[in-house]
């Protein structure tokens, strides 16, 4: 009997908590009808695939809201609370986030071209797979880590884009040149891969990084081997030519 009472109490507590944290239904209707919802309560609102382009959501509470695949291009989200919100695959081009709270938000595969994220709180936000990430919101090591993750999944073009961003922030980032060369190698851009391998070797040498030097040299040797001398043809795997030395890529992940 005691266990039953405790179970019922826990169930009622969950319902009450959900009710307290639910979005204001009138605010949701207002947003969808007018795209004007300043300071609205949209906590945990379900707005999947909603067309909210140009919407005014400044100061709105969107904590835990599900906005996956929505269109928020040009939206005003200044000062909004988007902590824990799902923004997976959202079009956020030219959206304004100054002063917004995006802590723990899911921004994977978002489109961020010209999005204004200066002054936004981004601690714990997940930008993996996002396109157009402004350089100032991530470290070169983070761009590198995202690039390696995309490369291992076979998304070489996206991987190259991330490595480009890592290099743009940190031009002496030897590991990013090496990894970009690997990605180019996989899409059969041998010339680009060779150029990156040479730059990586020079940078590793100047940095007295022996494992890096050895790995770059193995890569260069692979690239200098004529294709018709290889045992098998076709697109190589991400690190098949590196063998055990492939683990050197991992040392560039952020700690």
Q: What's the arrangement of secondary structure elements?
A:
Blueprint: H1 2-20, H2 25-34, H3 140-152, H4 156-169, H5 174-186, H6 190-206, H7 210-224
Helix pairs in contact: 3-4, 3-5, 4-5, 5-6, 5-7, 6-7
Explain what this protein looks like in three dimensions.
This protein is mainly α. The longest helix has 19 residues, at 2-20. It has helices spanning 2-20, 25-34, 140-152, 156-169, 174-186, 190-206, 210-224. Residues 14-20 and 242-246 have low confidence and may be disordered. The protein has 7 helices and no strands. It folds into 2 domains: 30-134, 3 Solenoid (Pectate Lyase C-like); 138-252, Tetratricopeptide repeat domain (Serine Threonine Protein Phosphatase 5, Tetratricopeptide repeat). It is elongated.
* Tally of helical segments: 7
| The CATH C-level class name of the largest domain | Mainly Alpha
Strand content: under 5%
Distance between the termini: 50 Å
Which features does this protein show?
7 helices, Serine Threonine Protein Phosphatase 5, Tetratricopeptide repeat, 40% helix, mainly alpha
Please summarize what this structure is.
The protein is mainly alpha-helical. It contains seven helices and no strands. It is 40% helix and 0% strand.
